[in-house]
Structure formats: structure tokens, C-alpha cells
């Protein structure tokens, strides 16, 4: 009997909502306070810097995903470009670890919001949410992405409520725009480090390529969905960050694990219970997306013969990679119980930036060997500029660690 395969059933709308939910759930509800604390009044520019770096790499991902629509993602791209299996496996494992670490950070963020509502201890909230979402991920890709789509709509609604509360401050933006520009060397350093942290909030679009084997017409739908999801998230982030630094003292947000609750209460005078609920949904969406991504990537690596074959097993009933999902959920649970959010986010950003550098270099190399290679989604200048930008932003992360 032949081995069951993944089911190709995901359309462009569901894929875009999956990506948007992954990006939005991957940091803004949890990490906005830390970005504001590091970058101060230049936080909107920090998000803009991170957005540009992410957008350049998104073009590269769109190009490669259209040409190689496989679950092994980055590992396959590097193998096609360099032909070094060890390098491909290292990149695949790095992105899987980044997804696992990201899910752990979000699980801790969930526990922070959940503690606003119940007396459940952090460890209880973390364990409960990881186990429940792992069960949904095992259930099926259609069920998982539909659940993710609903959560995406809810979490975007939460961001719009916070932005509405910042309306008065945003109305002052034309007169106060100069306050958002760094005016001293220390401010430039804060912008650089803030950009490194803000990059974490854009992580997620690259995860969309891991469900390539479950997407209908992937050559067309994958690139369009990647760019649409990233563009929608960027617009929300820039408006929110500008309103926050105009309305509040950025340093007051540093250290809080539920920053949007603090912002909403300060700007509206109302209790932030509803934003707490939105924050819970946002972190749920991000955790589910990372569980799906990392399990598909382990499945893809095993399918290529780079990991034990047991991880490539697909349930004939659910058509999902159950062994890979169980491994991912177990690692998420361990990390979430052991490490704080900022440390997890910083590690995730560093890993993703390193992989982005490799992926951009892969596309650059493929085109140097064949100038007509690809489908024309990424301009020829995009990969080298994206490579330089990722390395520069990563240097900001190193500088923050040294400090």
C-alpha cells in the first residue's frame, strides 16, 4: 500500500489569512512594549526598517516558492542552489527551531494575557494551550486553517480597536512627525536594536511556503498570498506604532507582557478586558501557525531523506503528519516553560535572519548561473539588497546582546 500524502486543498484566501494571522500573532500583541522600550520615539521607524527587510526577503521567497512548491522550503532552495545536503539540513533545522521557539514565546505571551482573566498559573496556561492546539493541528489542514482564519479576523479587529483609541494622537502626526526621527547617536542605536526586535513581528510569511504541498495552484497562489499577508500586517503595525509613541511614554511599555491592554486602558480610560481576549486569540493563532509550519517542515525534511522516515508518516485518516506534530508540540512545551519571551524572540529573530540571508544568497546564485531563471516575481536587484539588509539587521541584534 502506498504512503498517504498531504491533501492539496488550500485556496488563496485561506492561505492569505493563515499568513496574516501568523505574522500578526507572531509578535505585535506580545512584543510591542519591548520594541517601544528599545527604540523609544523611533519605534515606528524601527517597524519600517523591519518591514523593508522582510519585504525584500518576501520577494525572494515568492520566487523560490513558485518554482519549488515543496514542504521542505528553505532546505530545498539551498540544496538546489548549492548542492550541499548538510547545509540544506542545517537551514531546515534552523527554521524549524525558530518556529518552535517562536511558538514557545507566544505560549508565554498567551499565559501573560490569560493571567489577566484567571488565577491559572503560567505553567498551566502554557501546557493547556500547547496541547489543545496540537490536537487541532493533528485534526486536519482544512480544519486548522479555518480555525486560524477565524482567529485572524478576531485579532485584526482587536488591533483596529486599539488604533481607534489612538485616533487623537494619530491626528497630531503631521505636526509631530519630527518627534519620530532620531536626533542623537543613542537614538540611532535604539532604532537599530528596535528594528531587530520589531523584525520578530514580521516573522511568519516564510512559514506559508511550508504548506506548499497542500495549496492549490501554488505557482500562482503562494507568491500572491505571501505579499498580501505581509502588506496587510505592515500597514497595521506602522499605524499602531506611530499612535503609541505619540500617545504614551514608550519606556512605560517596556517589560509588560500584555502591552496592548496597557495602551487601550491609557488611551480610552476603559478596562482592557476585551483587548485581553483579543490578545489571547492572537497568540493562539500564532502558536497554531507555528505548530503547522514546523511539523510540515520536519515532514518535508524527512520526505527528502534528511531526517528519520518516521517523521514523514502521514495519517491516512487525517492526512496530517502526526509524529512530526507530536515532536514539535513537545519541544514547544519544554521551551515555553523554561525561557522568557524576550530571550525567545531574540533567538527566533537571529535564526530567521540567518536563514533569510541564505535563501537570498540561494536565489542570487541560481540567477547568476542562469539569468533567465525563475518566474519574475523578485527583481534581479532584490536578493543582493535583501542579503545585505538581513546581515545589517542581524548585526543590530548582536550589538544588543553585547550591551
Q: Would you write up a description of this structure?
A:
Helix content is 73%, strand content 0%. With 403 residues, it is mainly alpha-helical. The chain starts with 11 loop residues before the first helix and ends with a helix.
Explain briefly what this protein structure is.
The chain has 403 residues and is mostly helical.
Strand content: under 5%
Give the overall average pLDDT.
84
Return Rg in Å.
20 Å
H/E topology pattern: HHHHHHHHHHHHHHHH
What overall geometry do the principal axes of the alpha carbons give? globular
> How many distinct helices?
16
What kind of sheet is the major sheet?
Answer: none
Helix residue percentage = over 70%
**Unreliable parts:** none
Strand runs, count:
0
Look at the helices and sheets and give the structural class.
mainly alpha
The end-to-end distance, rounded to whole angstroms, is: 58 Å
Spell out the blueprint of helices and strands.
Blueprint: H1 12-25, H2 28-39, H3 43-67, H4 74-82, H5 85-114, H6 122-139, H7 141-165, H8 167-171, H9 173-176, H10 185-199, H11 218-247, H12 259-268, H13 273-303, H14 322-338, H15 341-369, H16 382-402
Helix pairs in contact: 1-7, 1-11, 1-13, 2-10, 3-10, 3-11, 3-15, 3-16, 4-5, 4-15, 5-6, 5-13, 5-14, 5-15, 6-13, 6-14, 7-11, 7-12, 7-13, 10-16, 13-14, 15-16
Amino acid at each position: 500500500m502506498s504512503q498517504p500524502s498531504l491533501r492539496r486543498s488550500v485556496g488563496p484566501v485561506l492561505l492569505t489569512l493563515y499568513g496574516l494571522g501568523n505574522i500578526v500573532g507572531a509578535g505585535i500583541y506580545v512584543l510591542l512594549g519591548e520594541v517601544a522600550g528599545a527604540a523609544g520615539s523611533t519605534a515606528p521607524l524601527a517597524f519600517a526598517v523591519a518591514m523593508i527587510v522582510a519585504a525584500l526577503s518576501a520577494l525572494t521567497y515568492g520566487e523560490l516558492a513558485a518554482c519549488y512548491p515543496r514542504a521542505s522550503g528553505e532546505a530545498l532552495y539551498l540544496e538546489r542552489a548549492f548542492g550541499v545536503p548538510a547545509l540544506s539540513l542545517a537551514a531546515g533545522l534552523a527554521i524549524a527551531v525558530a518556529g518552535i521557539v517562536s511558538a514557545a514565546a507566544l505560549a508565554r505571551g498567551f499565559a501573560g494575557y490569560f493571567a489577566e482573566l484567571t488565577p491559572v498559573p503560567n505553567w498551566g496556561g502554557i501546557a493547556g494551550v500547547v496541547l489543545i492546539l496540537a490536537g487541532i493541528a493533528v485534526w486536519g489542514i482544512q480544519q486548522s486553517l479555518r480555525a486560524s482564519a477565524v482567529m485572524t479576523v478576531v485579532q485584526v479587529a482587536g488591533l483596529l480597536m486599539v488604533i481607534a483609541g489612538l485616533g487623537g494622537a494619530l491626528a497630531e502626526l503631521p505636526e509631530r512627525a519630527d518627534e519620530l526621527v532620531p536626533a542623537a547617536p543613542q537614538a540611532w542605536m535604539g532604532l537599530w536594536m528596535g528594528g531587530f526586535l520589531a523584525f520578530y513581528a514580521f516573522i511568519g510569511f516564510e512559514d506559508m511556503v511550508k504548506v506548499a504541498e497542500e495549496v492549490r495552484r501554488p505557482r500562482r497562489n503562494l507568491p500572491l498570498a505571501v505579499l498580501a499577508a505581509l502588506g496587510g500586517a505592515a500597514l497595521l503595525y506602522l499605524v499602531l506604532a506611530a499612535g503609541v509613541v505619540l500617545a504614551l511614554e514608550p519606556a512605560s511599555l517596556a517589560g509588560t507582557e500584555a502591552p496592548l491592554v496597557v495602551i487601550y486602558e491609557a488611551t480610552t480610560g476603559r478596562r482592557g478586558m476585551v483587548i485581553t481576549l483579543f490578545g489571547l486569540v492572537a497568540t493562539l493563532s500564532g502558536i497554531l501557525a507555528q505548530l503547522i509550519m514546523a511539523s510540515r517542515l520536519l515532514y518535508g525534511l524527512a520526505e527528502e531523506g534528511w531526517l528519520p522516515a518516521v517523521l514523514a508518516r502521514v495519517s491516512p485518516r487525517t492526512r496530517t503528519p502526526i509524529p512530526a506534530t507530536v515532536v514539535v508540540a513537545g519541544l514547544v512545551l519544554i521551551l515555553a516553560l523554561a525561557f522568557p519571551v524576550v530571550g525567545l524572540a531574540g533567538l527566533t529573530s537571529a535564526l530567521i535572519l540567518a536563514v533569510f540571508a541564505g535563501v537570498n544568497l540561494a536565489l542570487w546564485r541560481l540567477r547568476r548561473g542562469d539569468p533567465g531563471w525563475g518566474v519574475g516575481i523578485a527583481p534581479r536587484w532584490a536578493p543582493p539588497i535583501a542579503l545585505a539588509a538581513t546581515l545589517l539587521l542581524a548585526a543590530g541584534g548582536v550589538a544588543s546582546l553585547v550591551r
